Amino acid sequence: MKQYGLAVLAAVMVLASCENDSKETEFTVNENPATFKEIGSITIGAVGAAEISAYDETTKKLFTVNNSTTNQIDVIDLTDPTNPKMLTSIALSSYNGASNSVSTFGGKLAVALESTIDKQANGKVVVFNTTTYALIKEITVGALPDMITFSPDGKYIMTANEGEPNDDYSKDPNGTVSIIDVSNNYTVSTLDFSSFSSQLNTLKVGGFKIKNPTSNFAADIEPEYVTISSDSKTAWVTLQENNGVAKIDLATKTISGIFPLGFKDFNSAANAIDISDKDTEIAFNTWKLKGMFMPDAIANYSVNGKTYFITANEGDAREYAANTDVKRLATLSLDPTIFPDATALKATNKMGRLNLVSTMGDTDGDGDLDELISFGARSFTIWDGNSGSLVFDSKNDLDKRSHEFGTYDDGRSDDKGAEPESVVVAKMGDKNILFVGLERTDTVMIYDITNPSAPQYLQSIKTGDAPEGLLFIPASKSPTKRSLVVVSSEGDGSVKFYQPDLN
Question: What is this structure's pTM?
Answer without folding.
Answer: 0.94
